[in-house]
Structures are given as C-alpha cells and as structure tokens.
Amino acid sequence: MRKYCIGAMLLDKADPTRVLGRSRVPLLSPSDAGREVMCPISFIPAAHWSMPGHLFMPYDIADSAVGFATVRPGALVESLD
Fold it and tell me: Quick count: other Cβ atoms within 10 Å of Cβ 30?
C-alpha cells in the first residue's frame, strides 16, 4: 500500500527552478495509531504559518482530530541536503 508523506525543499529565490536543498527523509508521515479515517495512507496538511523562530503546520490525525507540527526554521534548513 502506498504511504504519502511530507518533505521540504529550499528553492533559489531568483530562480525557483533551482533546488538548493531538500529533505532526504519525510518530515511528517501518517501513523497507524488511533487512525480511523477514510484514507488511512495519507494525511492532509491544512496550511502553515510562522511566528518569530517557529513554523507551524496543522494536519489531520483522524476524521475528527487535528495535530500540529512545529519546527525552528534554522533547524529545518540545516537538515536539508
């Protein structure tokens, strides 16, 4: 069964066709624990926003629950290959 995950890419601001870095492993992936959803192989990030020093991304956990992922922008950029 396929499993859909989320990664990250850093693009060149002047030339967005040029990839400066990308995650080699998923940053977020669906978990089997407590998931009673119509499509158990995926999860849906709803949006993202930033506050000084943090990026936030809400995502669905189940049909009736939401989770939040957070990361420091510097740590995210340092993790990219």
Answer: 21
Whether residue 54 is contained in a domain is answered as: yes
The residue among 2 and 51 whose pLDDT is bigger is 51
User: In this structure, are residues 28 and 46 in contact, taking their beta carbons and an 8 Å threshold?
Assistant: no
Three-state DSSP string of 10-34: EECCCCCCCEEEECCCCCECCCCCC
Q: Are 7 and 22 in contact (CB under 8 A)?
A: yes
Structural domain including 20 reads 9-79
Could you give the number of structural domains in the chain? 1
Sign of the torsion angle spanned by Cα atoms 77, 28, 57, 1: positive
Cα distances (Å, whole numbers) of residue 63 to 27, 37, 59: 21, 5, 11
Percentage with pLDDT > 70 across the chain: 73
Torsion of CA 39, 41, 46, 48, to 10 degrees: 180
